[in-house]
Amino acid sequence: MIVTLTPNPSLDRALHLERLEPGEVNRAAATHLHPGGKGINVSRALAAHGVASRAVLPSGGPDGAQVVALLAAQGVDAHPVPVSGDTRSNITLSESSGATTKVNAPGPALTADEQEALLAAVDAELAAGADAVVAAGSLPAGVDDTFFTRVADLGAARGVPVLLDTSGAPFAAAVRHGGLALVKPNDDELAELVGRELVTVGDVLDAAATVRAGGTDAVLVSLGVHGALLVTGAGAWWAGGPALVPVSTVGAGDSTLAGYLAADGAPADRLRRAVAWGRAAVLLPGSAVPRPSDIRLDEVAVVADPDPSLALKEL
User: Fold this and answer.
1) DSSP string for residues in the chain
2) Rounded-to-integer distance, Cα 5 and Cα 136, Å
3) Which of 181, 196, 273, 291 is 20 to 30 A from 111 in CA distance terms?
4) In this structure, what CATH number is given to the domain that contains residue 297?
5) For residue 257, which of 101, 51, 13 has the smallest C-alpha distance?
6) 67-114 pLDDT, tens per residue?
7) What's the domain range around 60?
């Protein structure tokens, strides 16, 4: 069982347009409604492939209830923690060109008691025999930047690996704290963390080494259209495939992480599956997750010890 924690979930409303005209009346050709938030998306992708997962999330108001109901309809087991504020709704505008515009609401503030209840829910899942915990997404108002370090400590106390996908100050705090099995930043988030631009493969490898030096076992870096890099104590690998015209990029990184978790075997094999899942996700509307029939492993190439002098845009 893979447990996910999404501290700031959402009800994601996606509208597909031929072309977005700012300041004008726009008419959508199609609409989609999905339960959203990074950890929730990981659980959804895993469930679509028959991998057991349970989503821990705060839930408040009608939208929170609808998120839980939509998860159940998709075969995702949820562990909702009641909160007084209303779960947020996010809006995604996707264009035929592949451009995606996302408007995220801030979400409800969590009280100290609600935060403790959320952590207690995670600990209960750990005690019940979770194989791994994925903590992912932004932190809502009222939650300290060190919140994810407490999740790492819960995992360490139970002997369960914790994987993290977040950004900004919470990401920096967690990396300083260490004790993580894997972090999954994109290249911009990793650049912000180390305070320098990442232009080449070598730049990313150096930044990943900095993260690992703080006590994180592995770093999986999403490079968007340029694939992904995986750095562990055993080496480094790049994976990518032919160019795609995306339908929606929302949640693609979450599917990438789910693919990594769902795979067994050598790091190269896990990276290939991760990238294949992410590539499949960008061809789906809104924050829809790929199913087994969407995955094209044969389109993904993997290179061990990629040339550090290569520019990322050349991958």
Assistant:
1) -EEEE-SS-EEEEEEEESS--TTS----SEEEEEEESHHHHHHHHHHHTT--EEEEEEE-HHHHHHHHHHHHHTT-EEEEEE-SSPPEEEEEEEETTS-EEEE----PPPPHHHHHHHHHHHHHHHHTT-SEEEEESPPPTT--TTHHHHHHHHHHHHT--EEEE--HHHHHHHHHH--EEEE--BHHHHHHHHTS---BHHHHHHHHHHHHHTTEEEEEEE-GGG-EEEEETTEEEEEE-S----S--TTHHHHHHHHHHH--SSHHHHHHHHHHHHHHHTTSSTT----GGG--GGG-EEEES--TTSBGGG-
2) 6
3) 181
4) 3.40.1190.20
5) 51
6) 999 999 999 999 999 999 999 999 989 888 888 898 988 889 999 999
7) 2-314
Tell me which residue of 237, 178, 236 sits closest to 211, measured CA to CA.
Answer: 178
The total number of structural domains in the chain stands at: 1
Question: Cα dihedral sign for 128, 163, 9, 264?
Answer: negative
Catalytic positions, please? Answer: 254
Mean predicted confidence (pLDDT) in 217-234: 97
pTM reported for the whole predicted model: 0.93
What's at 160, amino acid-wise? V
